[in-house]
Amino acid sequence: MKVLSVNVGRLTPVPYTDHPQGLTGIDKRPVAGPVRVSAPGPKGTGGSGLAGDEIADLRHHGGDDQAVYAFAREDLDAWERALDRPLAPGAFGENLTTEGVDVSEALIGERWRIGADLLLEVTSGRVPCLTFQGHLGEKQWVKRFTREGAPGAYLRVIEPGEVRAGDPLEIVHRPDHDVTVAVAFRAVTIERNLLPRLLAAGEALHPGEREQALKYVAKYGG
Known about the structure:
This protein is α+β, with helices and mostly antiparallel strands and 222 residues long. The chain is 23% helix and 24% strand. The mean pLDDT is 95.
């Protein structure tokens, strides 16, 4: 298991005209050499955890609980076949393109040691947006990506450090529950009845998703 590519993005105009910010950092490109990774601060003010990676819409992206986005090269390969087009590392806006890791089956709260110092913790799956759809130029992409149910993982920074292409990735902690990234993703998108199940992940769960689960239980029971 390893990091195949480290990808960062610069702000560029969005690929459609009615976006409120007008800019996006979704177009991430591989970089050579080490990149510093640290907790960026609370959502709304903190951006990406990777130095040099720019985020325009701080309301919906970035912050401590979405500091790093990882996506598996194996899933990119599957989408290459489905879309009949090449997809370079970073094509889905991911900071880390991994190899040998089933990212969407990672458990919420699972911890990854990358390289010598960096320690990350899985918090949630990536919910697709219209910027993602416009970036890829695929019609009905949001629905198609959601239906596939393999969203990749957001992670928070537990211990800061540097990451570079080729760094080994080791799973050093797996919590005692069965809430995977894929399950959490389905719960907040197309299978809302799964929301109560997410509470088993405890405080490791992304706070926004935990709030959704608590509201669902308060209204419908769990």
